[in-house]
């Protein structure tokens, strides 16, 4: 969360810095440092801020160290981000910025299919995420094909739901990725598929999967919760 966002949320509650500091049991000086951007708002403070009624968008969460990924339950985090299919699974606030969660999930060699099916929802629901960061990180990890396919599915769902503004934003992200399309055939985080499955998908995949050189049978009809 940026300091300016914290200040906006605080003022929305009608509190001054002293009142927020009192409720958090910290010094007013620390609150001031957060709001002026001198110090970042620690991610561990976000649940406390949320409980005080200072609701924030998950896209405001700071990026975490990749090493913390080993402790992440992808299904649980997707649930905490609001994915409808996992609504019963929710146990708290999101801890990963959706942009970083998307890249980390796509980087998995073998991802639970139900989680993979939730990624187009993530893209569509958080269409305002930091796309520049996502594209840069995807290119570093050679994930642009998987990312492009995810965006294409989300864009198609947005079109079906007549969400023209969302569809337009997603189409722009697709266009920004096309120049870095990799020639190799990739999977949608299913590296353990057999050669027979790969051969079948080469000729039986969707137009979106073909366009992005991805071996996957995932189509929008499967995305009932997107």
Topology (SSEs and partners):
Layout: H1 3-12, H2 17-24, H3 28-35, H4 46-51, H5 74-80, H6 98-106, H7 113-125, H8 131-140, H9 144-160, H10 164-178, E1 186-187, H11 195-204, H12 207-211, E2 214-215
Parallel strand pairs: 1-2
Helix pairs in contact: 2-3, 6-7, 6-8, 7-9, 9-10
| Uncertain ranges | none
The total of helices stands at 12
Tally of extended strands?
Answer: 2
Q: Could you give the order of strands across the largest sheet? A: 1-2
Report, as a whole number of angstroms, the end-to-end distance.
26 Å
Q: Taking all residues together, what is the mean pLDDT?
A: 88
What's the shape?
Answer: elongated
Helix content: 40-55%
The proportion of strand residues reads under 5%
Structural class: mainly alpha
What Rg do the Cα atoms give? 20 Å
* Run of helices and strands: HHHHHHHHHHEHHE
Largest sheet: 2 strands, parallel
Instruction: Supply the number of structural domains.
Output: 2
How would you sum up this structure, described in words?
- Helix content is 52%, strand content 2%.
- With 226 residues, it is mostly helical.
- It has two domains: 3-56, Orthogonal Bundle (434 Repressor (Amino-terminal Domain)); 66-222, no CATH class.
- The chain has a two-stranded parallel ribbon with strand order 1-2.
- It is elongated.
- The model has no long low-confidence stretch (mean pLDDT 88).
């Amino acid at each position: 969360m940026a300091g300016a966002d914290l200040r906006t949320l605080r003022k929305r509650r009608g509190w001054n810095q002293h009142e927020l500091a009192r409720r958090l049991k910290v010094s007013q000086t620390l609150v001031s440092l957060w709001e002026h951007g001198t110090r970042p708002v620690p991610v561990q403070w976000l649940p406390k801020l949320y409980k005080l009624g200072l609701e924030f968008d998950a896209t405001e969460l700071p990026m975490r160290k990749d090493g913390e990924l080993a402790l992440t339950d992808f299904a649980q985090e997707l649930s905490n981000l609001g994915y409808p299919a996992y609504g019963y699974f929710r146990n708290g606030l999101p801890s990963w910025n959706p942009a970083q969660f998307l890249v980390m999930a796509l980087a998995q060699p073998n991802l639970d299919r139900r989680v993979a099916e939730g990624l187009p929802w993530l893209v569509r629901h958080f269409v305002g995420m930091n796309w520049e960061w996502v594209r840069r990180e995807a290119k570093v990890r050679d994930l642009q094909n998987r990312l492009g396919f995810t965006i294409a599915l989300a864009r198609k769902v947005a079109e079906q739901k007549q969400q023209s503004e969302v569809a337009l934003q997603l189409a722009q992200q697709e266009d920004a990725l096309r120049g870095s399309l990799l020639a190799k055939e990739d999977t949608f985080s299913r590296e353990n598929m057999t050669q027979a499955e790969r051969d079948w998908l080469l000729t039986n995949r969707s137009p979106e999967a073909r366009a992005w050189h991805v071996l996957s049978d995932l189509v929008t009809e499967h995305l009932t919760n997107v």
